[in-house]
Amino acid sequence: MRYVLLCPGQGSQKVGMGRDLYDAFPSARDAFHAVDDAIGTALTTLAFEGPAEELTRTLNAQPALLAHSAAVWAVVGDALRPHVVAAAGHSLGEFSAYHLAGALDLASAARIVRRRGALMYETGVARPGAMAAILGVLGTPIEALCAAASAESGLVVPANFNSEEQVVVSGEVAGVERLMALAKEAGAKRCLPLPVSGAFHSPLMAPAQAGLADALEAEPWRDPRVPVVANVDAVAVHDAAQARTRLVEQLTAPVQWTRVVQTLVAAHPDATFLEVGTGAVLAGLVRRIAPGVRTQTCGTVADVEALQAALVGAH
């Protein structure tokens, strides 16, 4: 059995995430507490009890999602590691993927993502922006619609290429509003404003890059044990220096998720794509992008038990 690990990004967080793992497994408990200790806050309490508005804040959601993925890995990693052939994560999830791939210890990853969330929030306050999901097949390429909206109203760019029928755009508020109108004219089924604190994965995030680069350099890195396919170019990363560079670029570049999945499927067509952490968003996107691929989620005690049974059965 071969597995590709996928780690979810911001938006997957929910109150109660990881609670059953925490209660059932001492190693999961240790992972949550390690994140609390690293960032100096009771994040575990917030993840389990809310309030949701506080958990959704960028600087909280990012380390909470990391903590859940890390807690799952703490439970299943020893048994699963020999079967893992590659990893990837969506936006914030790319940092979780590097932890699972052995490039970053958990405390280091927690400090980095907490700093990243704070930088993204501060940048969004200083230069307000917006994001929106555009659903459906468009009669005009999204890049052309963004160029038109930018010329008319304000900068807007593609931020996440999630699947052929789901693109997220990001930019100045007026530009995003104009883009939504143009997308509807071009055949979009729905245009949904997203509850975010800034224009992530757009040039508006450029002021956060220097601070993130400093945070990445301040922590010890190792080369990942398995390749991690980067969001910015869908190319497999094998060394720590390349990883840091790609993660800084990711702040202002679109998440090329469709291409990431295609790269992974081309290299590992027989692997099971395992979403590690909160929710099932990425498993769903993989099924849309590559319908023949096996997917599985691992975020709850029941998921862990199913995975452990499959691994035992494979021997």
Here the CATH topology of the largest domain equals Malonyl-Coenzyme A Acyl Carrier Protein, domain 2
Query: pLDDT under 50 segments (min length 5)?
Result: none
Gap from first CA to last CA: 9 Å
Summarize the helix and strand pattern as letters: EHHHHHEHHEHEEHEHEEHHEHEH
Helix-residue proportion: 40-55%
Strand order of the largest sheet: 2-1-9-10
The number of helical runs is 14
Total DSSP E strands? 10
Look at the helices and sheets and give the structural class.
alpha/beta
Cα-atom radius of gyration: 19 Å
> Any idea of the CATH class of the largest domain?
Alpha Beta
Largest sheet: 4 strands, parallel
The CATH homologous superfamily of the largest domain = Malonyl-Coenzyme A Acyl Carrier Protein, domain 2
What is the global morphology?
globular
Corresponding CATH architecture of the largest domain: 3-Layer(aba) Sandwich
β content, as a range?
15-25%
The chain-level mean pLDDT equals 97
Tally the structural domains: 2
Can you tell me about this structure?
With 315 residues, this protein is α/β, with parallel strands linked by helices. The chain folds into two domains: 3-125 and 204-314, Malonyl-Coenzyme A Acyl Carrier Protein, domain 2 (3-Layer(aba) Sandwich); 129-197, Malonyl-CoA ACP transacylase, ACP-binding (Alpha-Beta Plaits), CATH 3.30.70.250. Helices cover 51% and strands 16% of the residues. It has 14 helices and ten strands. The strands form three sheets. The chain has a four-stranded parallel β-sheet with strand order 2-1-9-10, with helices on both faces. Strand 7 (228-229) and strand 8 (236-237) form a beta hairpin. The termini are close together.
